[in-house]
Write a structure and sequence with these properties.
A two-stranded antiparallel sheet has the order 1-2. The chain is globular. Helix 15 packs antiparallel against helix 16. It is built from 16 helices and two strands. The two termini are about 35 Å apart. The protein is an all-alpha fold.
Length: about 375
């Protein structure tokens, strides 16, 4: 190993050690306070037994077929739904994101700054935490970041990685054309070509999923039948920017409806509530964005003094350095915009639905590059 490579190798070892230490310390059970985990496991178990991508939604006493996208349950099924194995693999995948950001940073920054960017990802407590959960955050972040990094390096094989990301979270499809556009170059012709490639990629990747849903449910569903609930959740009566769908169990309007009908009804109801009071909707958008970019956990389950302290110690320097980096000329403007794309996209998405710290997780690795650029002194400063 050359002298130039041992620092990043050491950083990768530290990153994977931190993740494995947390993952291996967790009990071999799924926490009940995050029901999404149980849903993903249920779908994966049905997939393993030949029943397909489905699970029984106890809230409505109904079997649902397109409520969750296929990528993550397929990943769980491929690992035989073994919790320890899943967590170990997620720890390794998340560590690879550290390397991806290092490679991206070396395009614009020197070795020291590139290592700082990688360290900001490797020591990110939120990324570390989510490797221990059976949620899409780790797998989605890894595949998305590697795809973006390869696109930025003019390696169009990155579209294959982004394709996997779309199957994990189909709503991210709208991000792909813009990423391809900015990766193609700054000339209008190249950006237009990149945008077209991104649109085509999204459609091609999601078509089998949409076609399958059409065959099973009679409707072309390109994302999931969870989209309507999320839309409604953001603007329901009593909404405060967070997610709370407990009332769905007792809504008489949903009685007798199947998943497609529930999805359509709740989506339309959410849009009605949003249009009915624009001032309220604008205020909710601000609250959702604030929740999404909160430097500390806000939920009762995780807002302990320790977690709040760790969150502040990490998030405030990251956000501060990112703002400084945006104001300096250490990075080309095109690089800044490319690294900001996920943050812009997921912030807008949260404003239109619900706000949560977990929704910004896929954007933080790219911000680390901008933050690291702030650690180089400008010549005019000294």
């Amino acid at each position: 190993m050359t002298h130039a490579r041992w620092p990043i190798a050491l950083l990768l070892l530290i990153a994977v050690a931190l993740r494995l230490a947390l993952c291996l310390s967790r009990p071999d059970v799924v926490s009940a306070d995050l029901p999404d985990q149980r849903e993903y496991l249920a779908i994966a178990a049905n997939l393993m037994t030949g029943q397909g991508l489905q699970f029984h939604d106890d809230r409505f006493g109904d079997t649902v077929y397109a409520f969750r996208s296929p990528g993550y349950p397929s990943f769980l099924a491929g690992l035989r739904c073994d919790l320890r194995t899943i967590r170990i693999v997620q720890a390794i995948l998340d560590t690879s994101t550290v390397l991806a950001i290092y490679l991206l940073a070396t395009q614009w920054l020197d070795e020291r700054q590139s290592l700082i960017a990688a360290a900001l990802v490797g020591l990110n407590p939120f990324l570390i935490f989510f490797t221990s959960l059976l949620l899409t955050e780790t797998l989605f972040t890894t595949t998305l970041v590697w795809g973006l990094v390869m696109l930025a390096r003019k390696q169009w094989i990155g579209l294959a990685s982004i394709a996997l990301a779309l199957l994990i979270r189909p709503p991210a499809a709208a991000l792909v054309p813009f990423a391809c556009a900015f990766a193609a170059g700054l000339s209008p012709r190249k950006m237009l070509a990149g945008f077209a490639i991104g649109v085509a990629t999204s459609l091609i990747v999601l078509f089998p999923w949409a076609y399958r849903n059409h065959q099973m449910l009679g409707v072309w569903i390109w994302t999931t039948t969870n989209a309507g609930q999320t839309q409604y959740d953001g603007f329901r009566d009593g909404a405060d920017g967070s997610s709370n769908l407990a009332e769905l169990k007792t809504m008489p309007e949903l009685a007798g409806k199947n998943e497609v009908e529930r999805n359509a009804y709740l989506a339309e109801r959410g849009r009605e509530l949003m249009r009915a009071d624009p001032q309220r909707s604008a205020g909710l958008a601000v609250k959702k964005i604030a929740r999404t970019w909160s430097p500390v956990p806000l939920s009762d389950e995780y807002a302990s003094k320790r977690n709040i302290t760790v969150g502040l110690l990490y998030s405030l320097p990251l956000f501060g350095l990112t703002l400084i980096g945006l104001g300096r000329k250490n990075l080309p403007n095109s690089a800044k915009l490319f690294c900001l794309l996920p943050a812009i996209y997921f912030t807008a998405s949260a404003a239109a639905t619900v706000g949560s710290l977990r929704y910004r997780i896929p954007a933080e690795p790219m911000l680390a590059v901008i933050a690291a650029s702030a650690t180089r002194r400008m010549k005019t400063e000294g």
